[in-house]
Amino acid sequence: MTRHTIGIAGAGIGGLTIAALLADQGHEVTVFDQFDRPRPVGSGLVIQPVGQAVLAEIGALDDAMAKGNVVTHMLGHEADNGRRVLDVWYDRKAVPDRFGLAIHRASLFDAILKAAQRRDVTLQQSAQVAGRDGQHLTFADGSRAGPFDLTIDSCGAGSPLSPLKSYPLPYGAIWSTVDWPDTELPTTQLSQCYRRADRMIGALPIGTMPGEETPKAAIFWSLRRDGHAAWKAGGLEAWKDEATTLWPAFAPFAAQVTDPAQMTMARYSHGTLMKPYGRGIVHIGDAAHRASPQLGQGANMALLDALALARAMQRADLDDAPALYAKARRWHTRVYQVMSAVFTPQYQSDSKWLPVLRDRVLFPVSQINPLPKALTAIVCGTMLPPLASLHQDRNGLV
Residue 92: what pLDDT? Predict the structure, then answer.
């Protein structure tokens, strides 16, 4: 295999994963990150079985498992009547090792960073990528690096290298990380409460943070993308009263929020690059496709992109590998993008009729065999082979 110089823009989940994979192939890999030390942004997430397999591939799964929390069930109910409107189980009878790994982004990042640092990977910090000049990366301070045989864009949703034009979604959420309290909610479950589609409250048990042993929870509250200022102006007590009235079990979580700054606003967008590569550059993760986190696939998509690109570079020369990567990820990405676009308005929108359709028609139908298994496959990321032509085993990975 020819040894190439690889420049990776962004030391996030996807960027560090592809760095580890390509270093294993013998390439000269340099990762550039804007921070003075690598650090993650965000709260809790769920790594699905397909993503766990990628973590295992780079030797990061054991560290992630040690800090994360196993979830086997997702349950959501309607606030006004208590009826279930979301009920998805991981089918552990058929596949005993199938579960979601709920984890704080900092703990996941720490596991992947350690895996990359065990390889011959160069990490350039305080290097804010601003653009690209031929085979060189350019930076905000006017400097540049290169030349690189291939640049990999893992800069995320705000990537200065990506031509993706996404459209903003009307709803986002405010998030926080709190201690897991004394509560009736099980630690093996993502629990959510809805009022129609304009209110969504959630609590996800995410294990522990790096260097800590106290179990944590990621909590979230659905909010219109332009509603953050009004939420702050309304005051914390008014929000807590509303949240705990809708869902009394949320009270011990909400009680830990004592400052509005503890709740971080996340705004979402939707879009996909039809061609996630160009001359000398490949886009992965949110730089290539963005969606609502409603299906819980964001980090998994970045991990799968990294693995697909690494496998493509094993099987093809540098000129052909980007197209092979794009082909391998095309249908899996697009189908999940479509499903996200369909599902999200049922849980986050101002619609009056979509929640009725969800509660009275779609949820009851979803509990009739064989649809529960189909829902499990959607959540696990295995509805379609994630690597398409590069797929070999039953878990969807090579």
Answer: 62
